[in-house]
Specification:
- The chain is mainly alpha-helical.
- It has 2 domains: 387 residues, Growth Hormone, Chain: A (Up-down Bundle), CATH 1.20.1250; 60 residues, no CATH class.
- 77% of the residues lie in helices and 1% in strands.
- Helix 5 packs antiparallel against helix 10, helix 16 packs across helix 17 and helix 18 packs antiparallel against helix 23.
- The radius of gyration is 25 Å and the shape is globular.
- The chain starts with a helix and ends with a helix.
């Protein structure tokens, strides 16, 4: 008996190793999404000057990727129902590669935006199809952790983007012959964007080694191939039982008409759709992509300088990575809802702390600090502002803009560093706490919920719809953030994010159900009323 049990455990470990490797490969799309989205954080400082961008144009350079990602989400789910999850992910890998090359060689702002928008199509597809695929192949007991691999790879991509941005910034200051020959100094932002080509190629190759989704195969009548994949994933005995459940659900669905968009708004879908919409809005409206996509800019507002702002951006990425790993370890033990409660409460407190920190800041340029500014800055023009104290960042920026004119953009970081009086450690703590709270909750849990809540027959359509809303809110937040800082100030911006998080916490407490440990068919039976 002990021998049989040992063999069974060994067989199960082999199955788990296969499914984990498959999930990690598919989730590499998340890495590309995270890298592609966050690499722009190191680029904005350079392209704003090179292309003489306004604040709204700067916001557009960042958010344009999300706009096309939003459009891609609208069609990616239904397209994956026709062509297969794996095939759509292959197309996404190709789009990432094209975007990387075109961005790196962009001769103008318009070409750069077009290249970013091409990448956005890949982002939109991989963002919803990768977790969908993983959920369809994973056993219920470890599905939460496996689906969270996608979020883990997203944050890993974000962390790597922050690190490579800083590395390229330092290489631009190097006197070594090879660094000079690669022109890191003149082409720093182009190198930052072009590096994405390498993981895009690896992802495209890796997808040839993963199987097609067993649920999709059954929907297409490819029973033998589905059986082979499922047996390898969860074992022969479990596979037969799972295939029976899936087949029963598919047969029941086949008696109905083809899934139509209006089915999303059927009375039976009201509960799960409400949760999907609110959580998709909440994840973005609390400002997470403002932090990820503008991290160096935010840190520069606290006056720590360019190099230090890039270093602290790396710290943000590492925090995100560490707490995402913690979330993956806890999501199938504590459950989805407890993590959401802990995370949204932390986000609320963190954002209010940031709002307080910037509200308490003052800005004073002394005669000495003006004389220590770079010689390229017109010291004489700033002398009338000497020893004047400004209580807010907006008033200070307006004053130096009037004094220096259009040249103020290139030297804003140095001017803030020379004038600001703020508790920069408190700002750093607030941002780190915010990222940690997000990473342990809304980051990974949202996509797990999306992959679980919606019925099998319209899962692709439903995830595309809520993903569309999520991406649309993300676009708006990214687009207006530079303009928001410029017109309303840092304190008001962060306070607004904190209010949204507080409202979201109330919704999670009273409305969001627990799905831990339940099969997809069981969840459908309980919550699609």
């Amino acid at each position: 008996m002990d021998i049989l049990l040992a063999l069974k455990n060994k067989y199960q470990m082999k199955n788990n190793a296969y499914i984990v490797l498959t999930a990690l490969t598919v989730a590499l799309g998340g890495f590309l999404m995270g890298f592609d989205a966050s690499v722009i954080s190191g680029v904005v400082k350079f392209i704003e000057i090179e292309f003489s961008l306004t604040k709204l144009e700067l916001g557009w350079s960042v958010s344009s990727l999300t706009l096309t990602a939003t459009l891609a989400m609208l069609i990616a789910g239904p397209l994956s129902d026709r062509l297969g999850r794996r095939q759509v992910l292959k197309y996404a890998a190709v789009l990432y590669a094209i975007s990387a090359i075109a961005s790196a060689f962009a001769p103008s702002f318009i070409v750069l935006v077009i290249a970013r928008m091409i990448g956005g199509l890949g982002v939109g597809a991989s963002l919803i199809i990768a977790p969908m695929y993983i959920a369809e192949i994973a056993p219920p007991a470890i599905r939460g952790r496996l689906v969270s691999f996608n979020q883990l790879n997203i944050v890993l991509g974000i962390s790597v983007a922050f690190f490579t941005n800083y590395m390229i910034l330092q290489l631009g200051k190097s006197d070594s012959d090879w660094a000079l020959s690669m022109m890191f100094s003149q082409w720093s932002w182009r190198w930052m964007l072009g590096l994405e080509l390498l993981p895009a190629i690896l992802y495209f190759i890796g997808l040839f080694f993963v199987p097609r989704s067993p649920r999709w195969l059954l929907m297409k009548g490819k029973i033998e191939e589905a059986k082979t994949v499922m047996q390898r994933a969860i074992g022969k005995d479990n596979a037969d039982k799972e295939l029976e459940n899936i087949n029963a659900a598919i047969n029941q669905d086949s008696k109905k008409e083809k899934a139509a968009f209006k089915e999303l708004f059927a009375k039976s879908m009201k509960f799960v759709l409400l949760i999907g919409i609110v959580i998709s809005v909440l994840q973005q409206i609390t400002g997470i992509n403002s932090v990820f996509f503008y991290a160096p800019m935010i840190f520069e507002q606290s006056g720590i300088g360019t190099d230090a702002s890039f270093v602290q951006a790396i710290l943000v990425g590492l925090t995100n990575l560490i707490f995402t790993v913690i979330a993956i370890m806890l999501i199938d033990k504590l459950g989805r809802k407890p993590l959401l409660i802990i995370g949204t409460a932390g986000i609320t407190i963190s954002m209010m702390l940031l709002a307080y920190s910037f509200d308490a800041a003052t800005y004073t340029l002394t005669t000495e600090s003006i004389s220590n500014l770079p010689v390229e800055i017109n010291h004489e023009a700033l002398m009338p502002l000497a020893n004047q104290t400004f209580d807010g960042d907006i008033a200070f920026k307006q004053a130096i803009a009037e004094a220096l004119g259009s040249s103020v953009t290139a030297y804003e970081s140095q001017l803030l560093t020379a004038s600001i009086n703020i508790n920069s450690l408190l700002v750093l703590f607030g941002i780190i706490a915010f990222v940690a709270s997000f990473a342990i909750s809304l980051g990974p849990v949202m996509w797990v919920l999306f992959s679980e809540l919606f019925p099998n027959r319209i899962r692709g359509l439903a995830i595309s719809f809520v993903g569309l809303i999520n991406s649309g809110i993300s676009f708006i937040v990214q687009f207006v953030f530079p303009w928001e800082l410029d017109n309303f100030g840092s304190s008001f911006t962060f306070m607004l994010y904190g209010i949204f998080a507080g409202l979201g916490l109330l919704f999670v407490l009273f409305k969001v159900p627990e799905t831990k440990g339940k099969s997809l068919e069981q969840i459908e039976k309980e919550f699609v009323r």
